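Is this the right way to post structure tokens for a design question? Let me know if I should format differently. Anyway, here goes:
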């Protein structure tokens, strides 16, 4: 009998340690304007790690309203233990729903929720937190704060990271004054990666008022990094030089002209405002990889306007003539307009009919940004809805519709990207490849072999080499040499442009595939 009792005792001990914790619903003990103290009963059945869940919704379904406070403490033993915890940095005069979660070696138990409320306060607060401008490696966060008159020591920080429990980066806001709607923009750049979802919240502090106010989470996703789909140098050819095939066709033709540094290195578009044949006179290319729908994209080109009157120069377009289904740019003497059809936005540039301009248009899924000669000039938020571009016919010199549009300009070095070019990439493109000196400005002929290659390339040309430069498709110089044999083994696999200049100043470029 004694041995049986011992076995039963050991079995009960083993059983008690072989189950998940027991957790009671929490009860509110006290509150302040910024905190709640709660108590709960936990039977750990071993060692249980305790976390708290706080939400402004009783359903706990929207992750943006849920705040998890991990590892607030440990509970040990096989009997019920009453413990207390404080939750800080809460919004004043707000109802919260609180759960307790305990985890041991055998599982996790989460209590039901209990309603708890912070005390009232008429001081500092957060009206809103938004991610307004999200690029592949940065995000513009806009905070709207309420800071009463007389409060001089309010401080605020934005925390952000790839999940809601481990936010590694923080940045402090500057420019906090007093008012009912203090709007502060903060650009986040530290550690952001393309095509990644981030969470962020704002914490507002007022030391003399003992306030620690934390907003709910916001969530944003960075678009993919830019990837060159098509590049049309228009160097006596209407075809793209990337691995993706694409050629502009026009029955009436778009003659090749000089881009001020070399003959036959640009095309001249001249489509009259009353030209009923513009459907066949304006250059058009079927480009199956064009970014459509609401996908992020970047378009870069060089242009010289031959006329800038009241009629709009439709530089490029694709899509259809339906609301938000087009993507393109047109220019008059006074305005440059991005049009999505029924959702057009404009800015006022200072173009003339003498100079060449490098124009970059970037859509990141929420807004349009314009750059001129590598310099940011304007950001526009789409007022009606996001884009839903359709179609794969890319037009130069007309709108997406058959007989609408006007164009009288020279265009050169057209590039179309999926994803978002960064400001540094845009500046590099302008400075290195889209400058006033054309990438090809002579009649240099050279052979490049082997191509593709994984280590060594050889150059064969009649004269001595003066300079060799290798560029990525984003326009960044990655290698330079003065030799006819070059080791490219350290370059990442991909497509590059090799620019060769000989001793007489003749220049030409060829595509290189590194494997």
């Amino acid at each position: 009998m004694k041995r049986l009792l011992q076995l039963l005792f050991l079995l009960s001990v083993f059983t008690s340690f072989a189950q998940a914790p027991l957790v009671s619903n929490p009860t509110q003990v006290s509150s302040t304007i910024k905190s709640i103290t709660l108590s709960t009963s936990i039977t750990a059945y071993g060692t249980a790690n305790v976390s708290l869940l706080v939400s402004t919704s009783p359903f706990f379904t929207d992750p943006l309203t849920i705040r998890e406070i991990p590892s607030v403490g440990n509970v040990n033993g096989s009997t019920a233990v009453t413990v207390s915890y404080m939750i800080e940095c809460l919004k004043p005069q707000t109802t919260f729903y609180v759960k307790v979660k305990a985890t041991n070696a055998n599982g996790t138990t989460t209590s039901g929720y209990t309603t708890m409320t912070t005390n009232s306060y008429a001081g500092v607060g957060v009206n809103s937190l938004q991610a307004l401008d999200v690029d592949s490696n940065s995000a513009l966060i806009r905070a709207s704060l309420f800071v009463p008159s007389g409060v001089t020591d309010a401080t605020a920080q934005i925390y952000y990271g790839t999940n809601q429990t481990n936010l590694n980066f923080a940045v402090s806001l500057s420019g906090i004054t007093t008012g009912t709607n203090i709007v502060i923009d903060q650009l986040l750049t530290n550690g952001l990666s393309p095509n990644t979802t981030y969470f962020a919240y704002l914490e507002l502090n007022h030391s003399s008022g003992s306030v620690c106010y934390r907003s709910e989470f916001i969530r944003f996703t960075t678009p993919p990094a830019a990837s060159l789909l098509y590049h049309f140098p228009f160097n006596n050819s209407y075809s793209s030089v990337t691995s993706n095939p694409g050629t502009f066709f026009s029955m009436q033709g778009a003659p090749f002209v000089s881009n001020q540094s070399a003959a036959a290195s640009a095309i001249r578009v001249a489509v009259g405002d009353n030209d009923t044949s513009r459907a066949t006179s304006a250059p058009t290319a079927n480009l199956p990889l064009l970014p459509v729908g609401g996908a992020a994209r970047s378009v870069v080109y060089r242009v010289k306007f031959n006329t800038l009157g009241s009629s709009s120069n439709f530089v490029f377009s694709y899509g259809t003539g339906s609301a938000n289904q087009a993507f393109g740019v047109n220019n008059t003497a006074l305005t440059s307009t991005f049009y999505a059809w029924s959702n057009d936005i404009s800015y006022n540039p200072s173009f003339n009919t003498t100079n060449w301009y490098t124009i970059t248009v970037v859509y990141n899924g929420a807004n349009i940004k314009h750059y001129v000669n590598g310099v940011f000039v304007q950001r526009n938020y789409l007022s009606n809805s996001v884009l839903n571009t359709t179609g794969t016919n890319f037009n130069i010199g007309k709108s997406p519709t058959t007989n609408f549009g006007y164009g009288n300009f020279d265009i050169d070095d057209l590039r179309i990207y999926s994803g978002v070019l960064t400001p540094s990439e845009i500046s590099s493109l302008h400075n290195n490849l889209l400058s006033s000196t054309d990438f090809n400005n002579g009649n240099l002929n050279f052979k490049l072999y082997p191509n593709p290659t994984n280590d060594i390339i050889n150059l064969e040309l009649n004269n001595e080499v003066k300079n060799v430069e290798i560029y990525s498709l984003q326009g960044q110089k990655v290698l330079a040499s003065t030799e006819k044999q070059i080791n490219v083994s350290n370059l990442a696999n991909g497509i590059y442009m090799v620019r060769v200049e000989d001793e007489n100043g003749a220049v030409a470029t060829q595509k290189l595939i590194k494997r």
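Format looks fine. Someone answered above. Worth noting: The first strand starts at residue 22 and ends at 23. The chain has three helices and 38 strands.
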